[in-house]
Amino acid sequence: MSNKTVIVTGAASGIGLACTLLLLEKGAQVTAFDIQEEKMRENLPKNHKNLLQVYGDVSNPDVCHDVIYQTKNKFNNLDALIHWGAAHSSARWDELNADECNQVMSVNVTGTFLIAQAAAREMADARKGAIVLCTSTSVLHGVTGGEGQGGPAYVASKGAVIALTRSLARALGPKGIRVNAVSPGITETAMIKDYSERQRDAMKQRFPLGRFAEPNEIAEAGIFLISDKASFMTGETMHVNGGSNFG
Fold first, then answer.
1. What are the φ/ψ torsions at residue 84 (nearest 5 degrees)?
2. Could you report the per-residue pLDDT of 42-56, keeping only the tens digit for each?
3. Runs of H (alpha helix) within 31-127
4. Is 154 labeled as catalytic in the residue annotation?
């Protein structure tokens, strides 16, 4: 990763934070992007020469373009985007209202498209680049919400990311840009803070490995997908879920 310039979204906490720190360790130049300015300031290194922090809403196209501009201005190039940022919703089908549904879709679908679009426009000029988006194992299991689990708005939005990955991969491949997705299983982040101990124990029984993922384990999958080792992969969804697909 040395000398690569990477934008990482959702960088204030969880998988995005882990990814940012791992990339810095590997010698990459990183733009950390998140709406949570205070958390980024608390959790990321101060005055790191290879780190740029940008704050804003990924569902705002002007903000997405500004992230690219600031990255180019500081590091002079852009090699990859790893987009972990997302909004969560646990509302069940009979609790979900239009406002919450639209907000989740705005961040998780429109925002995912906008940041990928902005990055791709820059990468297309160089005719090379890699984009990694983030979906969820909840799409495979049809999770229904409640007790901190993703509900229909969240699951639908993450299903849309799979379709978006495939569409962008086909459109951008001729421009030398690869687009893939990571589909994490349950990961030890703030997203599962509302899980009860009973719920945690029951869900771990679905995992042949008997535990949830650590953020670094998911982050490494994203880093692999932007690396030269994945140079012939595009349009794919990489499942990193401890075997929970087995049911």
1. -100, -20
2. 999 999 999 999 999
3. 37-43, 61-75, 98-105, 111-126
4. yes
